[in-house]
Write a sequence for this structure.
């Protein structure tokens, strides 16, 4: 342990080392419990990106997801087959194609989100009130980390 850590300041590496195993275990447990949806995690995040109602090019979806164009196209095709997204032509460039979420896609995203909220709430119910308050106090920090982290599409 470094002198800084012994004085109460933690390094990102020390915090990461101490929390990573538990985060991995919670992640796996959460997704095993929440695996009842027919939608995959990447499909859910695609729908979440599209839920703001702004159609996006397939290349933008791929970039936001950190996946290659063929993978994004395949995922969108699967969502399209289930009537959760639809492709629309770019009015300014007829060669361009956008995808947008459908009403059915919004309903499915809401349904799955509500289910997963309940699964995670079950996990949180194992905490006492002080622990739950501590987790609640960390929500803004976790949201900040999620907002700051961005994936880049593979080359």
């Amino acid at each position: 342990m470094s002198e800084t850590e012994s004085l109460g300041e933690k390094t990102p590496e020390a915090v990461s080392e101490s929390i990573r195993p538990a985060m991995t275990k919670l992640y796996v447990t959460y997704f095993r419990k929440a695996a009842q949806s027919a939608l995959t995690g990447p499909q859910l995040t695609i729908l979440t990106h599209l839920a703001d109602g702004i159609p996006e090019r397939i290349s933008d979806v791929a970039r936001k997801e950190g996946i290659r164009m063929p993978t994004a196209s395949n995922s969108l095709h699967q969502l399209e087959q289930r009537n959760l997204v639809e492709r629309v032509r770019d009015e300014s460039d007829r060669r361009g194609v956008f995808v947008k979420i459908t009403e059915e896609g919004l309903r499915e995203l809401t349904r799955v989100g509500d289910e997963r909220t309940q699964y995670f709430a079950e996990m949180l119910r194992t905490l006492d009130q002080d622990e739950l308050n501590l987790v609640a106090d960390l929500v803004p920090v976790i949201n900040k980390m999620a907002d700051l982290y961005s994936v880049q599409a593979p080359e």
